[in-house]
Amino acid sequence: MPIRHCIVHLIDKKPDGSPAVLHARDSELAESSAIENLLADLNDSYNAKQGKAWGFFHAESGAHPFSGWLKEYLEDGSTFTAFSRVAVEHLQKLMEESNLSVGGHVLFAHYQQGMTDYLAIALLHHSEGVAVNAELDVTPSRHLDLGQLHLAARINISEWQNNKASKQYISFIKGKNGKKVSEYFRDFIGCQEGVDGPGETRTLLKAFSDFVESEDLPEEAAREKTQTLVDYATSQTKAGEPVTLEELSGLIDEDRPRAFYEHIRNKDYGLSPEIPADKRTLNQFRRFTGRAEGLSISFEAHLLGSKIEYDEEAGTLIIKGLPTQLTDQLKRRKD
After folding, report:
1. Which end of the chain is more exposed for a tag (fewer CB within 10 A), N or C?
2. Alpha helices in 23-141 (DSSP H)
């Protein structure tokens, strides 16, 4: 993962309305294994975060100047250090306007992954710990706590530059402590939400459920294909990559690699060719299965509470919206 440029600034700010004090670095960080490890760990932590949102830049304006500064830097109109300096000064100003905000070390990193350029921006905090020194004494030790990553964004520079219609080249973490905490950081980037990750994921899973039903697959085959979808989408999410519908279709049915893709297109689910899968929604998409005395039941976990109701005391399931094929068979038996 080549790192083109990287720099860290410090904004000293407490959530009590006091002014934010900027301690800006005047040169980029030199290449080192420590920087590479930091960025690798940051990416892992960022990719694992749930509740991210995807979007695109607002039109450049006085209220949203970040994209203009980034464009100027990419066109060699300014250095990376100068770009990061004007950007962090803007962040400092927005922090002062948000009493809830807390300062920290602000990391800017322009790096390449594969053939794609990214810009990562993260507000980092320290945690207190202990270490054993050369004299075997236990001493206090401070370290960057990437597990407490609450404000960060990643911009797919290549997507932004090469696909003007894209509305998902920016991802950012939605604050856990309430919407207002993260609003100033989203405004700092100048990002508007363009893709509903959880909604797109639910639509994908609905399309898959419809596909499995239309194919009239045996229970074991349906379970295997479900696991394939979940495994692929989860691995893409972990890597910070979108789910590609054509690639997923090929994995679901190797003999007919375009079958699921054509099902999505023919039924017009409105899905983009690539979607940012939502980890929390994926975790709900599991299958419950059971077999006993000529009875076989298999259904997806997310149907509980909607199409399927479980009464634990009575030991019963109530199924609503039976498959058409099943109801037809029952009607024929009655006739």
Report:
1. C
2. 33-48, 66-74, 80-97
Torsion, Cα of 85, 25, 170, 49 (10° steps): -150
Q: Which pLDDT tens digit goes with each residue over 247-282?
A: 999 999 888 999 999 898 877 787 878 888 888 788
Contact assessment for residue 174 and residue 52, using Cβ atoms and an 8 Å cutoff: yes
pLDDT at residue 327, as a whole number: 81
Burial environment of residue 272 by CB neighbours within 10 A (0 to 12, 13 to 18, 19 or more): middle
How many residues are present in the chain?
335
DSSP E strands, the chain: 3-12, 21-23, 52-57, 104-113, 116-124, 126-132, 138-144, 152-156, 170-173, 191-195, 243-244, 274-275, 287-292, 295-300, 308-311, 316-319
Token output for 76: 């060699």
User: Facing residues of 231 across strands?
Assistant: none
- pLDDT score recorded for residue 219: 74
Residue that has been written with the tokens 């509305």 in this structure: 167
CA–CA separation, 260 and 90 (whole Å): 46
User: What is the C-alpha separation between 118 and 160, in angstroms, rounded?
Assistant: 10
